[in-house]
Write a structure and sequence with these properties.
heterodimer; A: mainly alpha; B: about 45% helix
Amino acid sequence: MQAADTPQRSYETPVPSGMNAAGLRRDARLERLKLFGLSSPALLLVLVILVIPVGWLFYVSFIGANGQFSLENYERMITRKSYARIFVTTFQVSLLTTGLCILIGYPLAYFLSQLPSRLASLCLITVLLPFWTSLLVRTYAWLVLLQKRGLVNDWGISLGLWEEPIKMVHNMTGTLIGMVHIMLPFLILPLYSTMKSINRDYMNAAANLGASPRRAFWNVFFPLSTPGLFAGSLMVFILCLGFFVTPAVLGGGRVIMVSMQIVSNIELFVNWGAASALGVVLLVLTMAILWIASRFLRLDQIAGGGH
Amino acid sequence: MKRLTILTVAAGLLATTALAQEKRVTIASWGGSYQEAQSKALFQPAAANTGIEVKEESYGGMSDVRLQVSSGQVTLDIVASGSGSAARAAAEGLLEELDYSIIDVSDFYPGLYTDHCVGGDVFSTVYAWNTETYGADGPQSWADFWDVEKFPGSRAYRGTVAGALEPALMADGVAPEDVYDVLGSEEGIERALNKIRELRPHIAVFWTSGAQHAQLMKDGEVDMTTGWNGRFDNAAKDGAQVAYSFNQALLDYDCFAIPKGAPNKDTAMAFLAEISKPEYQDDLPTYITYGPTNKAAYETGVIDAEVAAGLPSSPENAALQLPVSLAWYAEWETTAAEMYQEMLTE
């Protein structure tokens, strides 16, 4: 950002001669080059560990069982209806998880943002705590809690809340519970930081002008918090698309997502292409969603950039 | 002088490498209690008796072999495999042909060895039930497994096609000996799938691993499931209320194969010959309830009558079961797996 600042600052004192302006432009170019030079190790790393493998993935997906160029891996996805259903399930699970995360996460983030900072950091640690526990352990913990003779059913029945064990796992319900729990921090963190940066004076001003708390919230606070909300939701949604462990364990084999089909294709077909093609389609769909999203919001906000 | 030293060292190195090459094999199996049993009953005693040094590894199955063979970097000499995946690997040309003039299979059960894989143990895909729900007299056939009026309760079923279609056809009234004939066409596979569709509302879980179906029974999550007999015995030992029957079960086996281009192929062949002998195989049931593939192992006196009666390959139990057809899996598994996936995602 410094590079862009330099020529701007120069206008503070008028620059008289063309020579000088050209010199400054040259300086700016040079500085940009230097910055590029500094970032090149990281760019190279991205190239080596991202661009090349993904390119390879595209290439392999067009190799058929006989080792020749072929579209069979893509044709299979069209002729076999199960693939379409698996993509529908994947998007369904991802959308529902994102929706539930918003419903639970927004009020929580709002509550946290209104707390005094010391208390808020303490609460944030409890939000972050699950991050430091193994994903697999948390998923199996849900299995233990939610199964037919699990803790939740045992307590519910002994307290007389319900009589027959409720099916809470090995289905969509269990998958969603597990995924929402794992995804929640990804929504809360960007949302919290956005809410924290909203100046409280705006709310006071709204109240001063006669707005009810409800109106002040919906007309002032909520619109200002939407960048964080979009950023968090998008992150949750995209992470959900590639999820494997949680649906595999809590879905009981009845919730089949793309990542799980990739694994079975590797085991089933004798070439990597069959699995690669699924990866390619998922990647392209994800990028399409990102592209559409980028038309409505600035993607750099996901990284916590400008509010 | 210096040169001489180098030459001596080099010669010594060559000699030891040559010796090592002759006398060493690397074996890969599935790890866990299964490999522990193999190690104690087969690998370690055979190594002690032959002087062949054994290095054990665990691996991820035939996809590892495929990777090693296709990249020309074969490090494994012997791999333990399911019979079906070994048959497919053999069809792909990933395995060496076994020399049955070295490995003596004259006392083996017919069908428990192929040109590329020699049987190591016999297991069954059975139906198991919760003895709290149904008592000791649970379902006695696949028809009973499907009968939700006589045996109300939730079921678990396999999430992949292997061993999933045969029970459905038997429940549909097909005689065990005709099962693979009927499955030899897409209509036959569809018939089996329709039978599973019928039971589907009562299938709470489609399991994907042996550990999973054992846990499901242990936790009482389902009342009945399909699965591998050894896992249920282990679960019962851990206090699970579970019993199973061999009637109409699927008799299957695990086998040992040599990857194409294995570095110590000849030693591997000799080692396979050794561990296929009855005096090793008769120890296996001491560690896991999987039976020997060599009939003569029942005659050494090590396997007592009580243990024998509980093994999948005991003559009485084997007679009740349908042996899994490798030929069918080699020809139809991919097609059937895709059709199974269609059914699962409906």
